[in-house]
Amino acid sequence: AFGECWSIRKIYAEGVTSVMDYGLSAAGLTEAKFSEDFYWVGTGAFLDCGKLEKITITKNITHIGEKAFYNSALTEFDFNEAITEIPYFAFYSTDVESIVISSNVTAIGESAFEDCKILKELVIPESVTTIEKNAFKKCSALGVVEIPDSVKEIGESAFSDCSNIRVLKLSKSLTTIGTSVFYKCLSLESVEIPDSVTTIGEYAFYNCQSLLSVKIPNSVTTIYMYAFSGCSSLLGVEIPDSVTTIGKNAFENCSALKNLKLSNSLTEILESTFSGCSALENLEIPDSVTAIYA
């Protein structure tokens, strides 16, 4: 209806209860106010409203469409209990500082909060079972992440490039830490992997430069390539006997690593697995290992 109306600065629509798909996309809005009965935000409704400094909406919203606030200047949002899913790119690159997700939400969609650089506070309720890929990628102000035990799946790169995360609590229902999930979380100092996890994916903790310690449980069988590569502060690692495979470059350039205990179930050490671990002093190769590659 008013898409790409760049000259519109303010809109007051006390009788309007919904903005349908792309209804105000790319408008020049700086301020918008809607009625107490406003309940529906369509797909791309406020997409690319980059000047939108203030939007007055109510807690009565029951529907958020895909890319609803994509690249807008939205600073806050109250989630209604009727909302069960946060769709993909819904709040991509907005200016939200705090998000408390309501207790009926079960899924956080792909890139839902990606590139929200001001987001400092995040509360994920026990109702959430799935966090899809890139959901919080590049949320560089986020300091504490607690993933409740209800979460069974975290998608690829979900928290990658969250450079300020210091405290991380993982769900005890996870079976896999996927590809690049915590890639370049530069401030992360320690991580305890739950004993539900069987695989640690490629680049899972790649270049987590502040990581001092990691606890790997007996449930883990596979550590994929580059999983801990570039963790240059990591001091020691004990790889349990449950681990049968460590991928190429998995601990490459862990330059502070002094203490390393290998799994007695390994049969080979692949290319560059521990390349660049210049502080490593003593290493006992298990009798199970029959081949060491370059």
The order of strands across the largest sheet is 7-9-11-13
Strand elements, count: 24
**Into which percent range does the helicity of residues fall?**
under 10%
Shape: elongated
Notes on the protein architecture:
- The structure is a single chain.
- The protein is mainly beta and 294 residues long.
- The protein has strands at 10-13, 18-19, 31-34, 40-41, 54-56, 63-64, 85-86, 98-100, 107-108, 121-123, 130-131, 144-146, 153-154, 167-169, 176-177, 190-192, 199-200, 213-215, 222-223, 236-238, 245-246, 259-261, 268-269, 291-292.
- It is elongated, with a radius of gyration of 23 Å.
- It starts with 9 loop residues before the first strand and ends with a strand.
Question: Any descriptors?
Answer:
294 residues; mainly beta; four-stranded parallel β-sheet; 24 strands
In brief, what are we looking at here?
The chain is an all-beta fold and 294 residues long.
Topology of helices and strands:
Layout: E1 10-13, E2 18-19, E3 31-34, E4 40-41, E5 54-56, E6 63-64, E7 85-86, E8 98-100, E9 107-108, E10 121-123, E11 130-131, E12 144-146, E13 153-154, E14 167-169, E15 176-177, E16 190-192, E17 199-200, E18 213-215, E19 222-223, E20 236-238, E21 245-246, E22 259-261, E23 268-269, E24 291-292
Parallel strand pairs: 1-3, 2-4, 3-5, 4-6, 7-9, 8-10, 9-11, 11-13, 12-14, 15-17, 16-18, 17-19, 19-21, 20-22, 23-24
